[in-house]
Design a protein that fits this description.
This protein has ten helices and six strands. The protein is mainly alpha-helical. Helix content is 45%, strand content 7%. It has a three-stranded antiparallel sheet, with no helix packed on it. Strands 4-5-6 form a three-stranded antiparallel sheet, with no helix packed on it. Bound molecules: zinc ion (ZN) (2 copies).
Length: 295
């Protein structure tokens, strides 16, 4: 595995952290420590401070104090820096989510203290904040929006039945046309994943939200659709992006989606609350979404 040089330094540091010599008391900085004991049951040597009458070991003042399985911390940091997800790492080491988060927090604190540059590199990738799309992704995003707007606003189309160009657009938001020669109506969306979708006025904003990695809840809140419709629309637009051949954009959406979910999780952990949806495209009334009991 290829690692940055400062990552290697961090891993060595974590490897040697439990075995570093204790020279002074972490509680009162006194130096007259007395070696106390290392019974077989205890993992680290304990020292006794005569000035403050407390005992300590080599981890007492580190973020790893009271954490178990010290021989695996360095390997844990390797997987963390290699970009494995929390689920993958927890399964690999047999950790519960609580232990995973205490190890991750401890590694983060040590990294911030020992290798500040590495910590900066890692946090921008880990928490995925303030990410601007790279140039080729931005071009693909613009291409998708342009395709959608051009399809919705097209004035002419070629008839799929007779191939004639003498067609007239039928009034409405969906691009429906009438062919003069063979007297048929057709819609240019018929062969695309957008077939059968209504409310074409919401599409452009919706697909921009999908490309920004918004969750179903976010899309529901901004568009005013219901949960089911938001979910279905998102899938249909993802199919459209795939059909247009922008596979890198799909990877970007997965990435942005995990960034957004990270953002929401930290907001909720800090006691925040997401806004409720305030608008809806559906007619509102007493019978909406509930049973009306007979009086
Ligand atoms: Zn002391
Ligand atoms: Zn025709």
């Amino acid at each position: 595995m290829h690692l940055r040089p400062d990552a290697r330094r961090l891993i060595n540091y974590l490897h040697e952290l439990p075995h570093r010599p204790v020279r002074f008391c972490p509680w009162c900085d006194a130096t007259d420590l007395r070696f106390r004991s290392q019974p077989a049951r205890q993992r680290l040597a304990r020292y006794y401070c005569r000035s403050c009458r407390k005992s300590c070991n080599s981890l007492s003042d580190s973020p790893f104090a009271n954490l178990h399985r010290m021989d695996q911390w360095a390997a844990f940091a390797v997987y963390l820096l290699a970009g494995w997800s929390s689920v993958q790492i927890a399964a690999r080491f047999g950790l519960t989510s609580k232990v995973y988060f205490s190890w991750g927090r401890a590694v983060g604190v040590v990294m911030a203290e020992e290798c500040a540059e590495l910590h900066q590199w890692w946090t921008t990738r880990q928490f995925r904040e303030n990410l601007q799309p790279p140039e080729h992704i931005e071009r693909q995003q613009r291409a998708v929006v342009t395709w959608l707007e051009a399809t919705l606003n097209a004035r002419h189309a070629r008839c799929p039945k007779c191939g004639g160009g003498q067609t007239y657009r039928i009034k409405g938001l969906r691009p429906k046309f009438k062919c003069d020669r063979c007297v048929t109506c057709f819609c240019t969306l018929s062969a695309t994943p957008l077939t059968g979708m209504i409310r074409a006025d919401l599409w452009v904003d919706f697909i921009k939200g999908v490309m920004d990695g918004q969750s179903i809840q976010d899309l529901k809140r901004s568009s005013g659709l219901g949960m089911g419709a938001s979910k279905r629309w998102r899938e249909q637009f993802l199919l459209l992006i795939e059909a247009l051949g922008h596979s890198e954009l799909l990877g970007w959406i997965v990435w942005m989606r995990s960034r957004r979910s990270n953002e929401v999780v930290s907001l909720v952990r800090q006691g925040g609350c997401l806004d409720m949806a305030t608008r809806s495209v559906y007619p509102q009334g007493l019978r909406k979404g509930r049973f009306v009991s007979k009086q």
